[in-house]
Amino acid sequence: MIWGNVKYIDHYKGISHALDVALDYLAAGDFKELENGKLDLEAGVFVKLLDQGLKNSRDWEAHKKYIDIHFPLEESEQVTVMETALIPGWGEYDEAKERMKAPACEGGSTVTLHPGDFAVTFPEDAHMAGLTSGEEKTIRKVLVKVPV
């Protein structure tokens, strides 16, 4: 996992062309053209603008073909991450949704993302995004999907 802020986004460039495309998009900060739904960029990268309900607990989620970049726009969210191999109870991989899920369990590391912060989760990083330790509410966020 990478946890950073757009002010320092150049520190994370060079890992892959597709990740650079995603990071450049976040750094530009122009989300006005983005409506709820999907926007295709280049190199197989796409962006979703979401109204995400924050909850106190969620199931674990992991992907095989995509890296996720979580980027809250106006309010904070928490993301908990743990190595995929350490989590018991994974269901079958859903090819259509490009994910697998497991019930919540103890463990992992939690970061709080404030507007301007981002978290990059790789296939080995199971994650629970859209968490809150306070009041459950809905936030606006950008989710960028980057092919591995």
Strand content: 35-45%
What is the chains' assembly state?
single chain
Structural class: mainly beta
- Helix and strand pattern: EHEEEEEEEEEE
- Structure annotation, total helices: 1
Largest sheet: 6 strands, antiparallel
Q: Helical proportion?
A: under 10%
Tally of DSSP β-strands: 11
Rg result:
15 Å
Mean pLDDT over the residues: 94
Tertiary shape? globular
Spatial separation of the terminal alpha carbons: 14 Å
Order of strands, widest sheet: 1-9-5-11-3-2
Low-confidence stretches: none
Question: In words, what does this structure look like?
Answer:
- The two termini are 14 Å apart.
- This protein has one helix and eleven strands, in the order E-H-E-E-E-E-E-E-E-E-E-E.
- The strands form three sheets. The chain has a six-stranded antiparallel β-sheet with strand order 1-9-5-11-3-2, covered by helices on one side.
- By secondary structure, it is mainly β.
- The chain is 8% helix and 43% strand.
In short:
The chain is mostly beta strands and 148 residues long.
Q: What is the secondary structure topology, with strand pairs?
A:
Blueprint: E1 2-5, H1 17-28, E2 37-40, E3 46-53, E4 60-62, E5 66-72, E6 77-83, E7 100-102, E8 109-113, E9 117-121, E10 125-131, E11 138-147
Antiparallel strand pairs: 1-9, 2-3, 3-11, 4-7, 5-9, 5-11, 6-8, 6-10
